[in-house]
Amino acid sequence: MIFSYKAVSRDGGRVFGELNAQNKREATRVVLARGLTVVSIEQSKSNQKVLKKRSSPEDLMLSLHEMATLLESGVSVAETIEAQSNSHYPPDLSERYLNMADEIRKGSSFSDAMKTADFPVPSYFLQLLKAGELTGNLGLSLRSGVSQFEYDMKSREDIVSALIYPLILVGSGIAAVLLIFLFVVPKFAPLVDRSSDLPLLSLLVLNGGMWFNENASIFLFFAFLSCVAGYWLFQRDDVRRGVKSFAFRIPIVGGWLDEADVAMWTAQMSTLLSGKVSLLEALDLSSVSVFSERRRSLLKEVERDIRAGEGLADSLEKADCLNTTGYNLLRSGERAGKLPEMMLSLAHLYEEASKRRMQRMLSLLEPLAIIGIGCVIGMIIIGVILAVTSANELVI
Fold first, then answer.
1. What are phi and psi of 271, to 5 degrees?
2. If you ran DSSP here, which 8-state letter would residue 180 be given?
3. CA 367, CA 194: separation in Å to the nearest integer?
4. Are 119 and 113 in contact (CB under 8 A)?
5. 76: burial class by Cβ within 10 Å (0-12, 13-18, 19+)?
6. Helix and strand element counts for the chain (H, E)
7. Strands 14-20 and 2-8: what pairing?
8. Which of 32, 187, 202, 267 could form a cystine bridge with 347, CB 3.0-4.6 A?
9. Are residues 253 and 361 in contact, defined by beta-carbon separation less than 8 angstroms?
10. Strand ranges (DSSP E) for 21-123?
11. Interval 311-344: pLDDT, tens
12. pTM recorded for the entire structure
């Protein structure tokens, strides 16, 4: 990476130049080693294209794994952050580690420094780090946070991946229907003028094809505007909440999302409680990442009941958040003092149930999509064939 610098020599003269360094800190050291006093160091304009590359979630996860490994190996916090800030990460991630190193040198705690450096991690991650600092197990807490963060990302990716194929299937079907209307149906449009006694289906197909052929540009323009408007609306929190709430009410799909939501919540609770975070703080932190608005409001009621002196299992059962197996497991965990372990077992149960429901949903959704697309295309073909047959009968 190339840096441009301005400096002052020992005799008071101004010095300008460029040098190649991994980051701004290393560039500063090189300039100081030359016996110069640094006035300013900026990244060269030739780096602008490189700087546009942003770190991916995989880059972040890899760096967090490396940092956890260093801390678990007994490396001090200062040395760990220094090593991370000198690593070859994408520019935005390297800058975060540099900022974190500066905060550590100023006396900030590890968790506060990470928060100030604006790392894109969930709120429970920072809370786990604070608990690790208090108990002296920062490396273990960081590893637990990374594992849970990785699990959350995988759960979301599984949901997205499960929906990709059906969406591609439906999109391909719609594109095929539009292409038929645009290029095939108009070739049979003269049959409408040639015969006044065509079947209703034929009239609908042929007239629809002619209309689409004449107004294709307008249709595509409004379709594009609809996509842009939909994307803009989906950036709003209230719209996203509404879409999520609607998805949870869809038969079969809602059950799958509900079980996946519970699996992610119980896994987070297990990680937080294992990291010595208090029960109330764990409830508050884990409820933030819950997809279901209904469950999030129920968890607030659970939190109020626990503050009033009730147990976790009884409060969850009162709010109807889980199933009977879940209540029994958590009640046993509370009595035996192994609530984190029971939470983790419950997370595995719900995860497996979610995967089974997902497979059932996909096994039903894909054939339905194929049948639906086949029916539409079949009706178009039948309409064209009926029109041709009717026209030939009139000629005979």
1. -65, -45
2. I
3. 39
4. no
5. exposed
6. 18, 3
7. antiparallel
8. 267
9. yes
10. 37-43
11. 888 999 888 888 888 888 898 988 888 888 998 8
12. 0.65
